[in-house]
Amino acid sequence: MTTAVLFDNVSRHFGAVRAVDGVNLEIAEGEFFAMLGPSGSGKTTCLRLMAGFEQPTGGHIEIFGETAEGVPPYRRSVNTVFQDYALFPHLSILDNVAYGLMVKGVNREERRKAAEDALAMVKLPGYGTRRPGQLSGGQRQRVALARALVNKPKVLLLDEPLGALDLKLREQMQEELKSLQKSLGITFVFVTHDQGEALSMADRIAVFNDGRIQQLGRPEDVYKQPKTRFVADFVGSSNVLPPKLCQRLGLKTPFASLRPEAIAIAAPADGALSLSGTVSAHSFLGAVNRVVVDVDGARVAVASPAALAVPAVGSPVTISFAANELHPMEDA
Amino acid sequence: MRSDRLNRSPMGLKIAAAAGLAFLHLPILLIFLYAFTTEEKSYQFPPPGLTAQWLAVAWNRPDVWAALTLSVKVASIATAMALVLGTLCAAAVSQTRFFGRETISLLVILPIALPGIITGIALRSAFSMADIPFSFWTIVLGHATFCIVVVYNNAVARFRRISGSLIEASMDLGADGFQTFRYIILPNIGTALLAGGMLAFALSFDEVIVTTFTAGQQSTLPIWMLEELIRPRQRPVTNVVAMVVVLVTFLPILGAYYLTRDGDQIAGAGK
Q1: CB-CB: which of B163, B183, B187 is closest to A84?
Q2: Secondary structure letter of residue B50 according to DSSP
Q3: For residues B186 and A253, which has the higher predicted lDDT (pLDDT)?
Q4: Do residues A245 and A276 make contact, with C-beta atoms less than 8 angstroms apart?
Q5: % of chain B with per-residue pLDDT over 90
Q6: What is the number of alpha carbons within 13 Å of residue A218 lying toward its C-beta?
Q7: Which residues of B touch A189 (CB under 8 A)?
Q8: A328: cis peptide before it, omega within 30°?
Q9: pLDDT tens digits for B31-88?
Q10: Is A84–B175 a contact, with Cβ atoms under 8 angstroms apart?
Q11: Where do the domains of chain B lie, and which CATH numbers do they carry?
Q12: Domains of chain A
């Protein structure tokens, strides 16, 4: 397995601001890698370090085994799909897509053909003569994708590419991006603040906060076994049980995570753990009811199937869950 | 319909507006008229007769040609300098952040706010202190001080509308600095530069005050005209030259106006 992108203790400080602070990661060739985090967490700076728009203030970056520090963006076999697409407004769609080939000196006929193929690949055949201003947001996004892919990059960087699209279009593009990545076999590095997007598309996820990677792993692992309270909260809003409850459940660690959908409002089956409390609120979310149970002052959210009856607010309930659903967390 | 009636202005206002415009522009027409008068010593009205002979006379006067050539050369070179320096300065101020950026922006614009006479005196004393003799280049330098501002102002406004990610996108797609400038920046600021350059050329072409302090014994076209007015000989020749100056300065300004008028659709971020 070849390493596509390697970060070895990489930092990028802007004065006193530590945008990226000691990040280690290794992205494999052909991997769909997501960098997930809130705004200001350092994920976009990491992407810009890969693209070459930023230089690290510490550490070492390699792209396919070659040192990346000091290499300008135009000498990297990496292309970016920008958040605002950054299409050139004075060029036609075809010239936009062919731009990378044009500056490399590919002849006119060849680059026209390559650009048309790329446009067909993103399902915009025949749009070449239009201007960026004449396209919708979703279409511009596809043009930006075609413009990057036509250069056959070794790594494609995507900076919140779906952020400006409406929900339906976003879901459609998620599937298309995923299948495009599978068929091209190119390494995709994807920046997003949308945990659903990261979970559904990525092979692996790095969760960022405050310039550091909080957790790196497969989507299921990050979702089910958050290592820190931040990850538990940010990726799919797990319950974080406070030390008092952990102690009562016989855990040695001060905190533990527990997913709302792993909890049932029922008496415990054999070997299951249980807690008792009172219902403090509930809301209907479609497929499930979200029931908040107050257990000695700690709020525990339960995702209860909509088919089941919802206990009234203030009524005492027992909640139960399998022991292996409770994931101890080392740090606070 | 309704707004038409609401927007209709009273007759008095219309007349006042027409009179104001006439006051501004009729004297220029008089200049044109006296270029064709048969009477050469004084401007008597109405002209006793009309003739086109002064065009030929002006054409055959070597001093006119010398002054015209000097003016065109000065304006061209001052504009060229302004285009290079003004664009570089605009790029620095609008695309990067550095200490003292606002101050530099202000200092660049200052020469056009200063009265020309101050610029002129300042340059003259600077030249004499540095023992620089008056020459073609001292005029060019004097003119470049305000030509740069015009180009800078036009360029900086357009630069600010180019989204920063366009330049990054170009670099990302493999274009180095020169290619990015040629294929992305220049097409987006081109009309602004052309407009700024035309304005700069027109400004330089009819500049008098700074020139009187930096020209020494040389005469640019406007200075030649001033001198001619004092010596009443073949006066209509001055009018012919005035006509040429109006044409040479008016056309670029008109061009600049049309070029920047609908520049809004250029270089908007691709959002």
Answers
A1: B163
A2: B
A3: B186
A4: no
A5: 29
A6: 2
A7: none
A8: no
A9: 888 888 887 776 777 777 788 888 888 888 888 888 889 999 999 999 999 999 999 9
A10: no
A11: 10-51 (no CATH), 61-265 (1.10.3720.10)
A12: 3-232 (3.40.50.300), 239-329 (2.40.50.100)
Q: Could you give the angle at the alpha carbon of A37 between the alpha carbons of A262 and A252, nearest 5°?
A: 45
Best probe of the B interface among A47, A53, A74, by most B CBs < 10 A, is A74
Contact between chains at B173 and A151 (C-beta distance less than 8 A)? yes
Name chain B contacts of A92, Cβ cutoff 8 Å: none
**Which residues in B lie closer than 8 A to residue A73 (C-beta atoms)?**
168, 171-172
Q: Count the helix, strand and coil residues of chain A and give each as a percent rounded to the nearest 5.
A: 30, 35, 35
Cβ within 8 Å of residue A39, ≥6 positions away: A193
User: d(Cα A124, Cα B241) in Å, to the nearest integer?
Assistant: 60
Which residue is associated with the tokens 């006066």? Answer: B235
B188/A89 CB distance under 8 A: yes
A111–B contact, CB cutoff 8 A: no
pLDDT of residue A92 exceeding 80: yes
CB-based contact (8 Å) between A102 and chain B? yes
Q: What percent of chain A has pLDDT over 90?
A: 49
* Closest-CA distance of chain B to residue A200, Å: 26
**Residue to substitute from B98, B162, B172, B176, interface A, most A β-carbons within 10 A:** B172
**Nearest of A71, A62, A78 to residue A3 by alpha carbon:** A62
Contact state of A89 with B173 under an 8 Å Cβ cutoff: no
> Which of A288, A277, A279, A272 is closest to A321 using CA atoms?
A272
Query: What are the residues of chain B with a beta carbon less than 8 Å away from any beta carbon of chain A?
Result: 163, 165-166, 168-176, 179, 183-184, 187-188, 265-271
A60: its two tokens? 């070492």
Give alpha helix (H) positions in chain B.
Answer: 2-7, 11-34, 53-59, 62-95, 101-113, 116-129, 136-161, 164-172, 177-180, 186-205, 209-214, 221-230, 235-261
Widest distance between CA atoms in chain A: 76
Residue of A nearest to B263 (CA): A90
Rounded alpha-carbon distances, angstroms, from residue A264 to A303, B110, B244: 8, 74, 93
pLDDT at B1 over 70: no
Contacts of residue B22, defined as CB under 8 A and 6 or more positions apart, other chains included, come to: none
Closest residue in A to B189 (Cα–Cα): A90
A-chain residues near B270 (CB < 8 A): 84-89, 132-133, 140
From A88, which residue of chain B is nearest by alpha-carbon distance? B166
ipTM of the complex: 0.81
